[in-house]
Amino acid sequence: AFRNKLEFFAAAKASSSFPAPNLPEIAFAGRSNVGKSSLLNALTRQWGVVRTSDKPGLTQTINFFQLGKKLCLVDLPGYGFAYAKEEVKEAWEELVKEYVSTRVGLKRVCLLIDTKWGMKARDYELIELMERSKTKYQIVLTKTDTVFPIDVARRATQIEESLLQNKSVVQPLMMVSSKSGAGIRSLRTVLANIARF
Ligand code: GDP
């Protein structure tokens, strides 16, 4: 699936404008600055062409990208900006929640967590929601190059243990660095396999 051409095909500010769910879908979520754009870029090697701005203060949309006619990649707006207006925050959080808990064809949510900082309250909120809606998700530790390998392993164990009681989480978690390229191929393989079923 990842050999196909990546094409932007929809941006949604409300669930009423989500495109028809014709393809298996994989969504990417996480706090702002977690490395989501860099990861999508590394995975597809084509992101630069289509990437729309995802910076604080600007309009937040859910962006849908098609990889050939095989797979839809969904870029969810980052959450947790310290300085976004409260009403803006609430609007996009509602949108993300609605997408994650109701979307037909959503096969997997990759929840990106910065290896150095670990899980925060907002991440747990999203996890709770996905557990309630039985949405399959998996944790992807990002920026593994920023800490020592022993700390990557510690973080992975800590998170996996905190999720042992959860039913919708897909273990083991994945670990990537968009900078060094570590883990990118493995993640691509995992995601391509999802598209096949
Ligand atoms: P987003 O806000 O989640 O889309 O995050 P970006 O992909 O824009 O990355 C946020 C910052 O983290 C940027 O300065 C990136 O250069 C940096 N970054 C992203 N991925 C990595 C990584 O794997 N390693 C390191 N060291 N820095 C990264």
From TrEMBL:
Residues 22-197 form the EngB-type G domain. Belongs to the TRAFAC class TrmE-Era-EngA-EngB-Septin-like GTPase superfamily. EngB GTPase family. This is EngB-type G domain-containing protein. It comes from Arachis hypogaea (Peanut). The chain holds residues 362 to 558 of 561 of the full protein.
